Amino acid sequence: MFYRPEDGHGLPHNPFNAIVSPRPIGWISTRGDTGDNLAPYSFFNAVAYVPPQVMFASTSAKPDRDGTKDSMAQLRETGVFCVNIVEYAMRNAMNVTSGAHPAGTDEFTLADIVKAECDTIDCPRVATAPASLECKVTQITTLPGEANLVVFGQVSGVHIRDDCLTDGLFDVTRYNPLTRLGYQDYSVIREVFPLIRPEV
Fold first, then answer.
1. Ranges for the Flavin reductase like domain (predicted)?
2. pTM score, two decimals?
């Protein structure tokens, strides 16, 4: 089949998210005037090595946050955020934090998640996450659409859980990353294999 997005797809549900998958999940923690916040975003990725930089997009809004969501509103206040990596074992806690809870709700408390302080920024992080990236906002970009915002951040600090290192390598098989598919579906990474890039 072929369809133009502006004309509709004619399917029971939009296939776009299912096509662009699997996607890593950025479990974004922020701190603001209303307190601490934690929410997952699947439009998330690393975008540069030197200096290390990441991005995530917020694509909907809450009525109590002036055209955006809690994470974006709070990092606009402070200029910082933390990306926490989601392991399969924390899938249910992550799902609890995905709700559109009222501004001021501390999702760490709501989902019974252990909180720790970041080292380079004034922001909470998930203490037991396989890894956490402390980030300073470099830019926020508005995309076409009603509530589409992308934030870019430069990584100023990296936390790695000791049990996720094998022979000096960050080993995803030690914690099994949770990934986002389309619809209400997720997947988990349990197997990896190498491909050696050809020399030319």
1. 20-177
2. 0.95
Write the pLDDT tens digit of every residue in 11-37.
999 999 999 999 999 999 999 999 999
Q: Which residue has the tokens 């996720």?
A: 164
Q: Is the C-alpha dihedral spanning 54, 19, 62, 86 positive or negative?
A: negative
DSSP string, 70-110: HHHHHHHHHSEEEEEEPBGGGHHHHHHHTS-PPTT--HHHH
Helix, strand, or coil (residue 184): coil
- Which pLDDT tens digit goes with each residue over 134-172? 999 999 999 999 899 999 999 999 999 999 999 999 999
